[in-house]
Design a protein that fits this description.
The complex is a heterodimer of chains A (648) and B (304). Chain A is mostly helical. Chain A is built from 23 helices and five strands. Chain B has one domain. Classes of the chains: A mainly alpha (648), B mainly alpha (304).
Chain lengths: 648, 304
């Protein structure tokens, strides 16, 4: 059954890679078949538990091909299938042949390569094959990010992504190579009886943390996600970041970890969550803002994983199970709503040609579908009931509360984590109130925004599917619990138990009632107004209509109170010329929040490395005499070592 | 879901709907009494709501249906939060582990919807009001979560009924002071906001609803009254040991506590001036620290 489904999936993806250049329809059919096969296989594993293995006689790189699918990898595979399929439908319209004649066809091929390699990373049960698939998906993602490579910003973002991805790949090479050297095989399997492998965790944390966009390794993420085409941003943010999480969860479950691992991950998670959303508040670029929210949500997932590790270390405390389940459910949730939000941002970009929020406004009139679906995503990402974001945050919260009540050493970490997670939620709400208000409500701030148009059925359909996913997990959390519980049981078999430890039925019914009543009340009040008849009048604002719609509150002002609190970290840059004199000439104010870690840390370090490389290059100049001198010095040094060191 | 539960919920909802608008009336009476005026009748808000409900509405030319749907959803969220709140001896209709988080996030949902409706008009004043509301709420929410954490640690439970039954223990005074400050901030009372101000630049909540009229405004005002009652109840139940009293005494203590909080709000409003905006985060941080100390005391109490 699973064999067949995965075979269909693989064949679909291969067909789509071959057909991508010439036949868009065949490509779409191939991708959808591939996605459906992957989702089917994942659902089968997630609903029955168990594990699927396939040993082939064929070998790659001298290693026999061994594929494995268990509940943990199935959880991620389902997400790859869903967002990959929806993104393909979206891309057909968003990055169409007519609008992008040069890059549409390669875009399709790289999309299929990316999906296929993501699937292989999840299925690979051999370190070497894991690395090959990992490298290939990084390259595919690079080519997707730089589809529109005429723009220098896109090239710079792609270059940064490629460089840092290879830093991650380098750590991963070291990780797998040392593991293979110690155990004598590239086979990936539980190795908990090798305590000497524990320090390898730090290599894995660097490699997977970089890929997941964990603070402070997130420096590549904002520019890559902002400058990529929106369907690519959606899959990068919704899915490929999660592959980093997959790596962390997988290998922290299979390998022994140092005692401090859980504390470090939890701390980094809290830092990512709070600082991610703080940086998001300072952004003016819609997609860059969404990219920073990925850092925040990765932080929430890491909090769940970190506390699960702490719980394991402290004798399998029951709250660890809740925290990890919340984190893993958040993997799905963030994949769904972040892809939805990036699709929404893509529709806005498609309709207006700008990502600058200060040039948008009033889009709900032209784009009611996009506005409504973006609002749904905004409610979900702010962790508000009755949608999916709340369910996973609630699980993480309950795990942390139980840890605090348990009065153990973990409580000292749980208390600040609870407060800061609450702060993160409130900050995310502030940020999305700003985004929705400035982009979709009020009056258009530019001609482009005034002439916007709704996107076509393909783009809307893709958004609808993801929105429906957000609603489904929110209203029927119990339906999705067994899948998450099985994934948790793979990570920590001690925690295997089918019953939900928390009243998900009560939460689900509360959510259902809330959703039904909210829809009812909203429709009823609107109908009442319509029946009674209402007047339309200008907004009362001490003279709103004149002189310009740019008198509206801006995104910068909206976030100003909060960004001031975080000014020490955000270091916003201000350029202003104040109006002076009785008849002031033109004045202006511009403010932007740079990527602080990149500008103040990564760039100087990169510069130093480059200077060192330049210095070393002086030795390579093409003069044979000098090369002979090097040889002589080398031979002399060796001779000196032999004489002074004595016989070995 | 049994018929009993549904009847219980309906009875509670009716109680909340009818009683909530009383509180602003009492506050205004207290303020008038301190100032030596006669003041509006205690039931003034009921008259206002009835009148607004029958009026026609005027909508901004820019507003989408969200301008009307937002307040409706916010009201549903507030009413839902109210239904989760246990009522002293009557307990709670719907109680489960973690319901306190649902309550906090329902308040957040109401905030999101109100801010959305405010941004609909494109008015700079309303944008300003919404920005202030969501920004100050960050600190208020941190305080509220810390207070809940203190109660959770104290009672070793995460459901509101058991959390609120005993007294808050050694940290009761700190917790009461912190929660009272949050009550003032979240309900836009002096010293955070002035419900009577007429200067748009200095308003928070009132600035957000400048363009609302007719039935939507009635819904917003009623929702605000619900929220005030919710916070007064929460404060009373957190501090008083209602679970250890007889039914009659507990009911009396509950009503007395809510009245005392309401009169307290009126007195604060009469005796204090509002703070400059720069000072608001400072006061909220103080409230947060008060709750944090209450948490530490609960922690020490539990360790012994």
């Amino acid at each position: 059954m699973i064999q067949t489904l995965l075979l269909i999936s693989g064949l679909g993806m291969l067909t789509s890679i071959l057909a991508g250049l010439r036949a868009p329809k065949v490509w779409l059919a191939g991708v959808l078949a591939g996605a459906a096969g992957a989702i089917g296989a994942a659902i089968t594993i997630l609903s029955t538990g168990g594990e699927w293995n396939s040993y082939n006689s064929a070998a790659l790189g001298g290693e026999a091909i061994h594929l494995r699918l268990d509940a943990l990898s199935a959880l991620f595979l389902a997400l790859v299938g869903l967002v990959g399929g929806a993104g393909a439908v979206y891309a057909g319209e968003y990055w169409s042949e007519t609008a992008h004649p040069r890059s549409a066809a390669p875009g399709r091929v790289w999309w299929s390569v990316l999906l296929l390699c993501l699937g292989l990373v999840l299925l690979a049960a051999n370190g070497l094959h894991f690395l090959i698939a990992w490298e290939l998906f990084t390259l595919a993602a690079y080519f997707l990010v730089t589809l529109n490579r005429r723009s220098p910003e896109v090239r710079a973002a792609g270059w940064l992504y490629l460089t840092l991805s290879h830093l991650s790949a380098l750590s991963l090479f070291a990780f797998f190579a040392i593991m293979a050297a110690r155990t004598g095989s590239w086979e990936l399997k539980p190795l908990l009886d090798h305590p000497e492998l524990a320090p390898l965790f730090w290599l894995a944390l660097a490699a997977f943390g970089l890929k997941a966009g964990m603070f402070p390794l997130h420096v590549w993420l904002p520019s890559a996600h902002a400058n990529a085409p929106s369907h690519v941003s959606a899959i990068l943010s919704g899915v490929t970041l999660k592959i980093g999480i997959y790596g962390l969860v997988r290998f922290s479950g299979w390998l022994p970890v140092p005692p401090s691992a859980g504390w470090v991950i939890a701390t980094l998670g809290v830092a990512s969550a709070v600082l991610g959303v703080a940086f998001a508040l300072g952004q003016h670029d819609l997609k860059r803002l969404l990219a920073y929210h990925s850092v925040e949500n990765i932080g929430i997932i890491l909090i769940g994983l970190g506390f699960a590790l702490v719980a394991t270390q402290q004798g399998h405390a029951a709250w660890g199970r809740l925290a990890l389940a919340g984190g893993l459910l958040h993997v799905w949730n963030h994949g769904l709503f972040k892809a939805l939000l990036f699709f929404g941002a893509g529709s806005v970009l498609h309709a207006t040609g700008t990502r600058e929020m200060s040039r948008l406004g009033g889009l709900w009139r032209a784009m009611p579908w996009t506005a409504a679906l973006f609002a749904l995503g905004a409610v979900a990402i702010s962790g508000l009931p009755p949608l999916n974001g709340f369910v996973s945050e609630w699980l993480v919260f309950l795990g942390l509360f139980d840890a605090a009540i348990a009065h153990g050493p973990a409580a000292w970490a749980a208390i600040p984590a609870i407060v800061l997670l609450g702060v993160t939620g409130a900050l995310a709400l502030a940020c999305f109130a700003k985004v929705c208000g400035v982009v979709f409500l009020g009056a258009p701030r530019s001609a482009a925004a005034a002439q916007a148009h709704e996107s076509g059925p393909g783009m809307r359909g893709a958004m609808l599917v993801l929105g429906a996913g957000c609603v489904a997990i929110g209203l029927l959390p119990l339906l999705f619990w067994p899948a998450v519980a099985r994934a948790v049981a793979v990570w920590q078999p001690v925690w295997a138990s089918p019953a939900a430890p928390v009243p998900l039925v009560a939460l689900g019914s509360a959510h259902l009632a809330l959703a039904a009543l909210a829809v009812l009340a909203g429709v009823w009040l609107w109908r009442k107004l319509q029946r009674a008849g209402f007047k339309r009048a200008l907004t009362w604002d001490c003279g709103f209509a004149r002189p310009t719609a740019r008198m509206q509150y801006t995104a910068g002002s909206f976030a100003g109170i909060i960004t001031e609190w975080f000014a020490g970290v955000l270091r916003p840059v201000r350029h202003e010329s104040r109006p002076e004199g009785a008849f002031p000439a033109a004045a202006h104010l511009a403010q932007h929040t740079p990527e602080t870690v990149l500008e103040y840390f990564a760039t100087p370090v990169g510069g130093a490395v480059q200077q060192l490389a330049v210095a070393f290059r002086r030795f390579q100049h093409g003069r044979v005499q000098s090369y002979l001198l090097y040889l002589l010095i080398g031979a002399a040094a060796l001779a000196a070592m032999v004489f002074l060191g004595g016989n070995p | 879901m049994s018929l009993r539960l549904i009847l219980d919920l309906i009875a509670r909802l009716a109680l909340w709907l009818l009683l909530a608008p009383l509180l602003p009336g009492i506050i205004n009476k207290v303020k008038a009494w301190v100032a030596g005026r006669r003041g509006p009748p205690v039931l003034q808000l009921y008259y206002d709501l009835a009148r607004l409900w029958q009026k026609h509405a005027v909508l901004s030319t820019l507003a989408s249906p969200g301008f009307v749907i937002g307040p409706a959803v916010a009201w549903v969220a507030l009413a839902g939060a109210a239904l989760l709140m246990p009522l002293g001896p009557a307990g709670s209709a719907l109680s489960f582990r973690g319901d306190m988080l649902l309550l906090i996030y329902l308040l957040a949902l109401a905030r999101f919807c109100t801010a959305w409706a405010a941004m609909e008009t494109g008015s700079a004043f309303e944008g300003m009001g919404a920005a202030r509301e969501v920004s100050f709420a960050v600190l208020a929410e941190a305080t509220l979560i810390t207070a809940l954490l203190a109660l959770c640690v104290q009672t070793e439970s995460t459901s509101l009924v058991t959390m609120l039954a005993p007294a808050a223990g050694a940290g009761a005074v700190l917790l009461a002071a912190g929660l009272f400050t949050v009550l003032l901030a979240e309900n836009c009372r002096v010293p955070f906001d002035d419900p009577n101000t007429h200067l748009e630049l200095t308003m928070i909540h009132e600035a957000m609803v400048l363009d609302h009229s007719g039935p939507p405004l009635a819904v917003i005002l009623h929702g605000a009254a619900l929220k005030l009652l919710l916070f007064s109840l929460f404060l009373t139940e957190a501090v008083l040991p209602l679970g250890q009293l007889s039914t009659l005494a507990a009911t009396g203590a509950l009503v007395g506590g809510v009245l005392a909080v309401t009169v307290g709000v009126g007195l604060v409003e009469s005796l204090l001036a509002r703070l400059a905006f720069r000072r608001v985060p400072l006061l909220l941080t103080t409230a947060f620290l008060l709750c944090l100390f209450a948490l530490l005391m609960a922690w020490k109490g539990g360790a012994e």
